[in-house]
């Protein structure tokens, strides 16, 4: 039933056609009940007039003002010949449509025209109790006006809500793009230090190899091997860096050593001190990882635990499991806090443009995959995988 209602709202002309057919059916029933009345109108007069009376109702939303005055003109012969309720009902629908879709001023003029036609018809066929009939007509018109005002106000409210939702969606998309740009800039700054370090190592080892090439070939060979390994890793880092769109030129920022996956124990201890018990499990050696991957593992754990501090609520606990295999580093952070609520409302970005968007960008930058979402029993889970080796 809900699906039918939504479909009818998306196709209002169908509802108007059904309304017109319903009014025509009632007038046809009235015509059939008068089959034995010697004063009834011939069918070849009544039927076309009945159809003409209700047909404009099908176009009331597309041409509201034209439809209303066509109904007003057809009301005169239809009501004079007493062919049914089509004229009265169509007039009420026309007034309601004028109030909702045209405006109060045009609707007021239309009411005056309707009342003038009704008074003229009653004056031509005046009968005892005519004033009561006129009062009833005025009250019905007033009811149609009030109903139109109510529906018009409701439609205006819905239009305003839709406009605000569209604006919020646009702002959210814009905020997402800004967050991605800021996070890319921050990743670029971090990779700058990594690449600069690798190039410095290459330069130092090359100088040493040139001095030891003749006096100590073994030392020179080790230096060349170090240059080769460092250069391959730096090349991989540089190719990742070229994919990052950096729009800001950062100057004057202090250079500090970047944390690595080996610093996770200190991170867990700091979070415990902040009030969230953290169970840390590390399977495998975290040494020897590419600098960018090691930094990415640290940052994702850091941001996930920060989200736990901010959103999981009091009494929450967190588990961090990091496992290194031959080809992958698998990272999983799970807390038992308010995961269901956080599933409905996106987590706000952390300072510097972090958050789910930033973590996903960081994982993708190094060829990894990140998944984040609520656990079935409550809480929140972040799972990321990184390749151990970056393809040059």
UniProtKB/TrEMBL annotation:
Heme found in the keyword field: no
Domain Signal transduction histidine kinase subgroup 3 dimerisation and phosphoacceptor residues, every copy: 183-248
Annotated Histidine kinase/HSP90-like ATPase domain residues: 293-389
Keywords noted in UniProt: ATP-binding, Kinase, Membrane, Nucleotide-binding, Phosphoprotein, Transferase, Transmembrane, Transmembrane helix, Two-component regulatory system
Chain segments annotated as transmembrane: 12-31, 79-100, 107-124, 130-148
Keyword Transmembrane: yes
Record GO terms (molecular function): kinase activity
EC code: 2.7.13.3
Pfam family, one: HisKA_3
Annotated PANTHER family: NITRATE/NITRITE SENSOR PROTEIN NARX-RELATED, NITRATE_NITRITE SENSOR PROTEIN NARQ
Protein name: histidine kinase
């Amino acid at each position: 039933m809900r699906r039918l209602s939504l479909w009818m709202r998306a196709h209002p002309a169908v509802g108007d056609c059904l309304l017109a057919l319903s009014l025509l059916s009632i007038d046809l029933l009235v015509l059939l009940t008068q089959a034995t009345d010697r004063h009834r109108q011939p069918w070849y007069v009544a039927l076309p007039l009945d159809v003409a009376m209700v047909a404009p109702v099908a176009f009331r939303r597309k041409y509201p003002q034209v439809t209303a005055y066509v109904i007003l003109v057809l009301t005169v012969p239809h009501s004079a010949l007493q062919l049914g309720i089509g004229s009265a009902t169509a007039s009420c629908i026309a007034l309601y449509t004028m109030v909702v879709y045209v405006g109060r001023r045009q609707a007021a003029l239309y009411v005056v025209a309707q009342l003038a036609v009704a008074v003229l018809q009653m004056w031509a066929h005046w009968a005892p109790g005519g004033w009561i009939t006129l009062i009833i007509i005025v009250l019905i018109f007033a009811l149609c006006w009030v109903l139109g005002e109510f529906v018009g106000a409701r439609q205006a409210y819905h239009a305003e809500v839709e406009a605000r939702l569209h604006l919020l969606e646009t702002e959210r998309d814009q905020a997402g793009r800004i967050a991605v740009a800021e996070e890319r800039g921050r990743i670029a700054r971090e990779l700058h230090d990594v690449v600069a370090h690798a190039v410095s190592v290459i330069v130092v080892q090359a100088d040493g190899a040139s001095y030891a090439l003749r006096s100590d070939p073994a030392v020179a060979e080790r230096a060349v091997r170090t240059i080769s390994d460092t250069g391959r890793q730096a090349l991989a880092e540089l190719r990742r860096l070229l994919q990052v769109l950096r729009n800001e030129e950062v100057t004057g920022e202090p250079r500090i050593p970047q944390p690595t996956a080996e610093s996770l124990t200190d991170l867990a201890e700091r979070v415990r001190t902040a009030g969230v018990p953290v169970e840390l499990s590390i399977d495998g050696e975290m040494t020897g990882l590419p600098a960018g991957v090691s930094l990415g593992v640290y940052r994702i754990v850091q941001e996930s635990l920060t989200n736990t501090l901010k959103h999981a609520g009091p009494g929450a606990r967190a588990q961090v499991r990091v496992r290194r295999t031959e080809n992958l580093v698998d990272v999983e952070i799970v807390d038992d806090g308010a995961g269901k609520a956080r599933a409905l409302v996106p987590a706000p970005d952390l300072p510097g443009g972090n958050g789910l968007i930033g973590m996903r960008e960081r994982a993708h930058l190094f060829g990894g995959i990140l998944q984040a979402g609520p656990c079935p029993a409550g809480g929140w889970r972040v799972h990321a995988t990184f390749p151990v080796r970056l393809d040059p």
